[in-house]
Design goal:
seven-stranded mixed β-sheet, alpha/beta, 20 strands, six-stranded mixed β-sheet
Length: 419
Amino acid sequence: MITVVGTGTGAPLPPEAAAAVAGARLVVGGRRHLAAAPVPPDAERVVLGTLAPALDVIERHLDRRSPVVVLASGDPGFFGIVRALAERFGSEALDVRPGVSSVATAFARLGLTWDDAVVVSAHGRALRTAVNVCRARPKVAVLTGPGAGPAELGAALDGDARVLVVASALGSPDERVERVTPAEAAGRDWGPAVSVVLCLDETRALGAVRTVAGPPAGPAGWALDEAEFAHRDSMITKFEVRALALARLGPRLGELVWDVGAGSGSVAVECARFGAAVTAVEKTPDGVERIRANAAAHGVDVRVVHGEAPTALSGLGDPDAVFVGGGGRELPAVVAACAARARRTVVVAMAALDRVPAARAALTGAGLDCDGVLVQSSRLAPLPGDVTRLAATNPVFLLWGVRNPVHPVYPLYREGVAQ
């Protein structure tokens, strides 16, 4: 057996765990873990760095039936070494003794429950996933790493209504728990002692009573009726078109979606309800305020950029998916700019037949596989005498381009997100 011991955050090893260390012939762990544990003088020690060589040493000891102990921080089954050990040696070979995780400890220091939190690991993973989750959810814990610490996270979130709680050296005499704005976090050198960063929307930090842990379940319904949104003179993507657009966009937690020429922001709001981080680009001042009001009414965060595409897109982070609405003369340039930067897909809605060839050429010119459909629908409408007729809505062309080969999209746990 491999005994995997979580050292917790400052607490001494339980007697059984200490006894396992005392009887080990091989002890693997970080330098501080090895220094603090009762490792026998004649036991082999391996300092964890690159994982593969340590696993090879463990295998040699197992072949000799030597007792092996692996020391890890907190709960080693939570974004920890248990996964790698189980993949190499099988779960049945592990005796896991978890400690208190840094995430649980950090929330405890604040007196906050965390059954409604999302936990994201940016340790050895792309920071963009953590940033997108922080923008989309009000209570997020980020496990940091080199190049993905509080400074980098703060720089990416600058301008968002969030507070970062940076917890360093939890459980030690040097423990620090500091509340900072994203801008303040970006301007500091935090050093190597950071344990975890909490990203909070403090207006919603307490959350509701939960039955199922993690973020809220997906929306019960989508393609909401136009009456669910404030809009001007029916200038809104109709729900039939929106339903298909959402199906092709595939918004989800950890991703970034642009809604370009957002108008009322109905597509932006619906993508945010699915858990995506969303940026809406709108050129009219009244449209900007309308998008903000619709986002607030549906309880989601949408970052609104007041400007005209494609110029307004230059300062934005690359999206996973893009919805382009409207259709002026600049449409081909807007579609081309979006298609050049989208990691996965671009969806374009057009009412004018004349715009379709140029939009299609812009998608295919950027290397995307293009498909599309003309959406025509008729809705039930009452007539006098308690009878019903069919009332046709305006037809809309919907084109979508998918990157080929498709940009790698992994399950959320592979991206370091726990729900």
